[in-house]
Amino acid sequence: MRSLIADWDASTPWWAYSQASRASLGSVMAVILAIRLTPGRFQCQSFRMTTLVTGATGAQGGAVARLLLARGHVVRALTRDPGGAAAGRLRAAGAEVVGGDFDDPASLSAALVGVGSVFAVTTPFGTDPATETRQGIALVDAAAGVDHIVFTSAANADRGTGIPHFDSKQRIEEHLAAGSVRWTVLGPAAFVDDKFGEWSLSGLRRGVLGLPMPSDAPMHLVAVADIAAVAVLALEQPGRFDRVRMDLAGEVTTPAAMASVLTAAIGSPIRHHRPPMEVVERHSMDLALMFRYFSEVGLDVAVPALPEITWTRYADVVAGMPWGELLREG
Fold first, then answer.
1. pLDDT by residue (tens digit) across 124-136?
2. Could you give the CA distance from residue 328 to residue 330 in angstroms, rounded to a whole number?
3. I need a surface site. Which of 75, 180, 283, 298 has the fewest CB within 10 A?
């Protein structure tokens, strides 16, 4: 298979590539957790809350569930596959795992019994933006009796970007804001964590970092662990974050700067390559519109000044990666 970096393979979604290399993603999470697990990040809490975490077997939901458990809270983890391996790991960590589906109102109602707050994450990938909107609204409606909903959206999704998987979240945000439940919306920028899957490693082995953006275009990045930290902070302090929308980025870099960081960490030259937009369009018009927006309009995200949060930096993650192992072919 040709490298996604050299010519985005239209037969394989980029998010499938990001899931393909479990070893590399495990390395990323190990590095980020080592950076983040420092004392004094949050004050100790004298209360226990019960939170329904949706998408609990995914990246954001899983990170939120684990941090809530680590801080002594009760987690009810909602998943469509309660018998799966990821659900089993959450159960072993102390979560109550329940089966449920956004398209099954009865399952949502059952999962919400006795719950005080909800962490909500939705995605169009695997379905479509219209389905994401419908399911997100169904969850918000089902959770009308809770005290607080924290919804993770996308950076600048409230601005009518024309990017389908941003606009679908904007409609959920609007429905949430029209209700009576306290809410907080988080708008993460691009994830640090999904930049080291096999789709990226295949290019790095040839000295190429592929991103369909100009080399000097601003690239906003945030680590999933940082999203989880802000989400838990909001869940623990609902009054402070009531009806607050925050776009999240730990830093603003550029593809050229990312290539320089990789060069220093790997010990061999890495250059940025910009795949043609028509190649991206053949793969996904949605993603092409996103990268065109990043390149031509640009995200408008200020790094939030939250004293409890120490933002993960791309360079810190890259410096701690086991590059000799990850770049070994075969």
1. 888 899 999 999 9
2. 7
3. 180
